[in-house]
Amino acid sequence: MFLDGIELDRRLMVVDGSNRFLTAREMPELFAVRCLVIEGGYVLLAPGMRRIEIGRTPVEGTDATVWQDTVKAGSFGRDIDNWLSSYLKREARLVSMTEETHRPLRMTPGRSYTFADTGPVLLTAQASLDELNERLDKPITMQQFRPNIVVKTTIAWEEDRWDRLRIGEVEFDVGAACDRCAMITIDPATRKRSPTAEPLKTLATYRKVENNHVYFGLYLVPRNTGRIFLSDELEVTKHKAKPRFVNVVPPAPKLIGTGLLEKHGISTEPAPVKTLALDCVAVIEEPGDVKTFRFRTEPPQPVKYFAGQFITLEIPHPGGKTARAYSISSSPSRPHDLSISVKRIEGGVGSGWLHDNLRVGMRLKASGPVGQFHFLKRPGRKVLLLGAGSGMTPMISMLRWIVDQHVPTDVVLHQAARSGSSLLFTAEMDLLARIASIPVRISHNLTKDTECDPALRGRLDDQMLARICPDVDERIVFCCGPDPYRSAVRAMLGRRKNFNRINFLEESFGSTAQTENGAVGAGSDLAANPDVSISFPGADRSVTARATDTLLTIIRGAGLEIASGCQAGLCGACKCKVISGEWTLSPSNVDPDMSCLPDDEKAAGYVLACSCCPTGDMQIALA
């Protein structure tokens, strides 16, 4: 151990064409690059690439930028740079620290350190990871946190109070707690990002401090050089006060990991996405200008999916064909029957064609089922299902499946509708509630009908929510419906001090824009024309981009500069101003309120580029 960190650790760095650092935050492919230390140099390996060997000493000097620091460094020549550029499919170079490299360590004035993110040495505790995994539906390994040192402790998070410690021959000051970013949402083994921004999303519910930093681990600053060995004991020589974490709420009881789902023969493994040929076998008129279309596959085969997922239909269109996504209303427990329930939308291409043209015996092509909004995404022992309009389609799928499978959960289902004549699936839901082996409560509110219980008249509000579900703080909440409805529910739950925001899931299909079938996201990223036009008047530049990309990706792809940090909607570094156009939160966002932005900036149109995706053409001003 040296004063600036572990020998050879973080002495090499990949930079882009402007000599600015590249990390796995934006290039997960870097996780697959292996660097082997050999006598006098290094060997680099990467999937699909030839082995390449370089010397320990750089061949020429250069500058390199890490965050706000521009320092002297050394490069290794064109061969390794071409190798990296070919692998990453973008201009890239390899640089090294040299004797001239001096990067100031801000947490300890007068000291310098390596190309490491914030501090010389990163320490984490296994007990704290174990406690975090108790909260996650899918446990993770310590590799996602990339520590230098892992210690075994008996109490989770006891490291919060450490201020100075000794391991082996080396004494350390605790320079700072490690504030986490979107990097930890990438699995180093698969190089894939978590579609639900885990584990950062869960950590943010109980490890976030006033400045919106989310802590896991400690940055250590060595006070002396020395050796550390595996199994050395750790001695804490000085303590300090624990950080003050804000908005801490205990998690709701979960089902995954308890063995209860397995006991009931319920699989949590997703099915592969398929291309399906669907024959229409029935068309059912429902209230509120909704039709249910029932299908069977050809050739007949069971279709595996999760309750709440959607399929994408290929629909004939005068200009060719178009694709539209619709939530499945049937139950996975009846795998030979696949149904969608679609509300006719004025001017809607997909819903209009289905209502006017689809008849029994006709065949459509489909893909799926897919989607991150489903019961097994976050199954709880208590759930609240909230649906409005045709946002009831995934809710009836969940209820049918829960009752059919005797899933050990307590269900409250509440429907919002304009009038009694537009309520969907009421007779069936009442029957399911009567025959269910588990507690099921059904209720509704009517926004336009005056001939109903006054307590359930009008829009869903805080008082009505408390009346229909007094224990909402203990439940996983699934919500689907038009954007104003979901926004109102999100705000209601946000006002509840004891509700854990991570327990709120809304239908999105990767978007939060209201769409044709009344469920969020239908026809968004899976629509036939997902490209949007993004213009930057201040830079006199316009680009065509994918609606599934974040504004941060689009801005950088346009060759424009923008700062960034956590890439999860926490730090505020990447704020920009929306001049015109609409956007949706990206799946990587862990703070839907964008609380790092002042209210006046949000009112003025400022958003976080890392956490927003366009839902149409936009004009952006860079801050």
Automatic annotation (TrEMBL):
Could you name the domain of life of the organism this protein comes from?
Answer: Bacteria
Query: Which residue positions does the secretion signal occupy?
Result: none
Name the Gene Ontology molecular function terms of this record.
2 iron, 2 sulfur cluster binding; molybdenum ion binding; oxidoreductase activity; pyridoxal phosphate binding
Q: 2Fe-2S ferredoxin-type domain location, by residue?
A: 530-623
PROSITE patterns on file: 2FE2S_FER_1 (PS00197), 2FE2S_FER_2 (PS51085), FAD_FR (PS51384), MOSC (PS51340)
Give the transmembrane ranges: none
Keyword field: 2Fe-2S, FAD, Flavoprotein, Iron, Iron-sulfur, Metal-binding, Oxidoreductase
Cofactor(s) required for function per UniProt: FAD
Domain FAD-binding FR-type, which positions?
Answer: 273-376
Q: Does the keyword Membrane apply?
A: no
Where's the MOSC domain? 92-237
Q: What InterPro entries does this protein's entry cite?
A: 2Fe-2S_ferredoxin-like_sf, 2Fe-2S_ferredoxin-type, 2Fe2S_fd_BS, Beta-grasp_dom_sf, Cbr1-like_FAD-bd_dom, FAD-bd_FR_type, FNR_nucleotide-bd, MoCF_Sase_C
- Report the SUPFAM superfamilies cross-referenced here: 2Fe-2S ferredoxin-like, Ferredoxin reductase-like, C-terminal NADP-linked domain, MOSC N-terminal domain-like, PK beta-barrel domain-like, Riboflavin synthase domain-like
What family name appears in the similarity comment? In the N-terminal section; belongs to the FAD-binding oxidoreductase type 6 family.
Spell out the protein name for this chain: Uncharacterized protein
Q: Which organism is it from?
A: Rhizobium fabae
List the taxonomic lineage: Bacteria, Pseudomonadati, Pseudomonadota, Alphaproteobacteria, Hyphomicrobiales
